[in-house]
Design goal:
heterotrimer; A alpha/beta; B alpha/beta; C alpha+beta; A: alpha/beta; Rossmann fold; 6-stranded mixed sheet; 4-stranded antiparallel sheet; C: alpha+beta; 6-stranded mixed barrel; elongated
Chain lengths: ~230, ~220, ~375
């Protein structure tokens, strides 16, 4: 199985006058199609790591190689394009655009990278809405939904461009336990059906248990890395 | 053995505690099965195959607990037979071992059975189980001073907590102590996993336990 | 581009109250500009029209002893080619004479016009309320006041005495009213040919002309051009601006104050828009953050807010123009003289209105520049980390 992601000697230091090192020489390889969980205490550096994997943040030193391409020397615009097509994000907060309906929100990543939304894409969006169980509310305004529904829209949105990787940072953090159940079943199902690679930061053992691999980050280093 | 397993399975699936317990204890008493066979060929496989075929998944946990409780009762009641087996094999005394589960690991049946194996093997097994706060545990270790700690882990997620525990034990104890690990969490790549959590030894069978020398030294 | 436009529209639609507020703000600014601008322009036009609408704006005379210009036809042709804005050029033979009726006499400025071309300047035909314009030799038309004073009727004969004491008899063929008493009392209009015949000359006393309405204020520059063209001829060239200095400085003062009002109104509108749009960027920072995480380019993120500025400017300009015109129109209805004519005649300069609209749109797009830059520089990490 090919490596969808490779991190080589990643270091991250914040601040100019007072320096704060958050990641120390992190090396990591992620297999394509795998379902991985990252755990660790608050402040351990896991969110920073995920942001670097997602190219939202640049490492102070080290290489990030996604699908064989080193993103180090990519210009901002190139990076944005790459991110748009390769990576889907799900954060603790759904970040849906409140001015748009659920369906419109799902289509936004596609519209960022393309001029016209074809019927095929609309059908894909419909299928995704069905996959996440929201066909009934797809034309609701994003604000007119429950928290669990909103997070499911966010997941559908992350998938519209058929990205290679989904990066999720505590996707169930803001949800009640019933919604959490639904979400973690959904994530695993997507991984099994669509073969999308998942890297999920979670405190929720139910998600971590279902992962193929648990990576524990402690004090900016990988403390434990075990496959199921 | 298959016949025994089948009959037991019947009572087990029906959750008929009385029939199941009486059946097994009767077999033990009539020496038609010994403790080791009971644990390894009947109880462990049945526990590992525990699935929930119900349409309504919501009472699966209930059912699992009820079934596990049946096994627990059997294991508790088999203790005299454990001691008898130990005396029968008459192995030399090999030291004290504390058998424990990592925090949040509530499947302690495995640990119970392992403790019984250690007993049979000539060790003084102290079964601690799960849910003991770290600090109590460390304090107890420093007083009791076992030369081994056996950690049973069923859920691979709990390996994270196990590593934390192992690191802390090694740091806090001032006498040499061997850390042994085992359980369903180590089902694939057990040696590697054991190594990455800083355990000293990984045991995957009863024989492995029996073949241990004093204080966990390998033969 | 299309995407950022649609985002801008949706963002604006989602906070209707705020959007409406900005549009009204711009509209008020634009309407003030248009109202005041049109008013001042109308006032100025009125004044200028009254002063020199029916008079010569550039006059060419000769300082020679006999005060005559020779070869005027050739000169007039030359002048016409000097500048496209020169219109209504006419040759004039004026002479100071005496009018004798019954036993009374008074001085009379006998103006010999080529009536057809002079009419373009003086509106002679329209001013004749009785009779007709002079055509044949020794036909003359006189002013209203003279008709009343001497109780004259059509076809009456009058005596005109020249400075050389030559007595000419003229037939009065019509009466005019220039609405200015001094003109109606002191002028007598006859044909150019008559004047030339009476004074036995081929020359003329002056070449009079006007310039295109839009170039009225450049009369002095045009006069200078003519002076250059006619350098060899040693003629005197006067223009209305040199002759009306006080009026001009009054007009200028008005213009300056009008422009100042307009500029400051625009500045405050721009500042208002910029501050509201800056708040909008803050309000929408979450949205921009996630859009960037999803791969929107920085430039596109900025474009969204530029488009917001542009759309607001456009709608504000349209509304402002309608509003401004409405204000101006109602001004003409309510601000009236005792005889119900408007105090100030409104002058709608469509070019001015169009430019005001364009300026409003450019201004609000510019006002959106800072918010747009902020949006394009926004780092998605800052948004995501703070939640």
């Amino acid at each position: 199985m090919e490596n969808i992601l490779e991190l080589r000697n990643i270091n991250k230091i914040y601040g100019t006058e007072i320096k704060n090192q958050v990641l120390y020489d992190v090396n990591l390889k992620i297999n394509e199609g795998s379902f991985n969980s990252i755990i660790g205490q608050s402040g351990s550096g896991k969110s920073t790591l995920l942001n670097i994997i997602g190219t939202l943040d640049k490492p102070t030193s080290g290489d990030v190689i996604i699908s064989g391409k080193n993103v180090k020397d990519m210009k901002l615009d190139q990076l944005a394009e790459y991110r748009n097509s390769m990576i889907g994000f799900v954060f603790q907060f759904h970040y849906l655009l409140p001015e748009f309906t659920a369906m419109e929100n799902v289509l936004i990543p596609y519209r960022i990278g393309n001029n016209k939304v074809s019927n095929e894409i609309r059908r894909r969006a419909d299928d995704l809405m069905n996959l996440v169980g929201l066909e009934k509310v797809k034309n609701n305004l994003a604000t007119k939904m429950s928290g669990g529904q909103q997070q499911r829209v966010a997941i559908a949105r992350a998938l519209i461009n058929q990205p290679k990787m989904i990066l999720a940072d505590e996707p169930t953090g803001n949800l009640d336990s019933d919604s959490t159940e639904v979400i973690y079943e959904l994530l695993r199902k997507i991984n099994q059906e669509l073969k999308t690679t998942f890297i999920i930061i979670t405190h929720d053992r139910r998600i971590a248990e279902k992962a193929d691999r648990i990576i524990e980050i402690k004090d900016g280093k990988i403390n434990l890395d075990i496959n199921k | 053995m298959d016949k025994i397993k089948k009959e037991f399975q019947k009572y087990f699936d029906e959750e008929d505690k009385e029939k199941a317990v009486v059946f097994i204890l009767d077999l033990l008493q009539r020496k038609q099965i010994d403790v080791i066979q009971l644990y390894t060929k009947v109880l462990t496989p049945i526990l590992n195959e525990l699935t929930c075929d119900l349409e309504d998944q919501r009472i699966c946990i209930w059912k699992e607990h009820v079934k596990t409780a049946i096994v627990r009762t059997i294991v508790e009641n088999a203790y005299p037979y454990v001691l008898a087996k130990r005396d029968e094999l008459n192995k030399p005394r090999k030291g004290t071992v504390a058998v424990v589960c990592p925090p949040e690991e509530y499947h302690d049946i495995g640990a119970k059975m392992i403790a019984d194996f250690f007993t049979i093997g000539g060790f003084e097994a102290i079964f601690v189980g799960s849910g003991t706060p770290y600090q109590d545990f460390y304090n107890a270790i420093s007083i009791i001073k076992p030369c081994m700690i056996a950690i049973s882990v069923s859920n691979y997620y709990n390996l994270v907590a196990t590593k934390r525990m192992i690191d802390a034990i090694k740091k806090e104890t001032d006498h040499p102590i061997k850390i042994i690990v085992g359980g369903h969490a180590f089902a694939s790549d057990g040696q590697e996993k054991a190594r990455s959590i800083n355990a000293d030894l990984y045991l995957d069978s009863v024989d492995a336990i029996m073949n241990l020398l004093e204080c966990g030294e390998l033969a | 581009m299309k995407f950022s436009l649609q985002m801008a529209l949706r963002f604006l639609r989602s906070s209707k109250g705020q959007t409406l507020m900005i549009i009204i703000g711009i509209a008020i600014g634009v309407s003030v500009q248009i109202f005041i601008g049109s008013l001042i322009q109308g006032l100025q036009k009125s004044l200028v029209d009254t002063t020199i609408g029916n008079a010569s704006q550039i006059t060419i005379t000769n300082d020679r002893d006999d005060k005559l210009i020779d070869d005027h036809k050739m000169l007039m042709d030359k002048i016409k080619t000097t500048d496209d804005d020169i219109i209504n050029i006419t040759a004039v033979y004026d002479s100071a004479t005496f009018l004798a009726i019954d036993n009374e006499s008074q001085s009379l400025l006998l103006r010999g016009f080529d009536i057809d071309t002079a009419d373009k300047i003086y509106d002679i035909y329209d001013r004749i309320y009785l009779g007709k314009a002079p055509i044949k030799d020794n036909e003359i038309i006189l002013g209203k006041q003279l008709q009343e004073k001497y109780d004259l009727s059509l076809n009456d004969r009058i005596d005109i005495l020249t400075v050389d004491r030559v007595d000419q008899v003229f037939t009065v063929v019509g009466f005019f009213d220039f609405k200015v008493t001094s003109l109606n009392t002191n002028w007598g209009i006859t044909t150019l040919t008559t004047s030339q015949t009476v004074f036995d000359s081929d020359g003329i006393t002056a070449i009079e002309m006007q310039v295109d309405e839009g170039s009225v204020f450049e009369a002095d520059a045009i006069a200078a051009k003519i002076a250059e063209q006619l350098y060899d001829y040693d003629l005197k060239i006067d223009n209305w601006k040199d002759a009306n200095q006080q009026l001009l400085s009054g007009l200028q003062g008005q213009s300056v104050s009008s422009y100042m009002i307009q500029v400051f109104v625009m500045i405050s509108v721009i500042l208002g828009i910029a501050s509201v749009l800056a708040i909008t960027v803050l309000q929408k920072s979450r949205q921009v953050g996630i859009l960037k995480a999803m791969g929107i380019k920085n430039k596109v993120a900025g474009q969204i807010f530029l488009f917001e500025g542009f759309i607001l400017g456009f709608l504000g300009a349209v509304l402002g123009i309608l509003f401004g015109l409405g204000l101006a129109y109602s001004f003409t209805i309510f601000a009236v003289n005792p005889d119900n004519t408007p105090v100030v005649n409104l002058y709608i300069d469509w070019r001015f209105i169009f430019i005001s609209g364009i300026i409003a749109m450019i201004a609000s797009t510019l006002a959106a520049a800072f918010p747009a830059i902020r949006s394009s520089r926004l780092n998605p990490i800052d948004i995501i980390r703070n939640n």
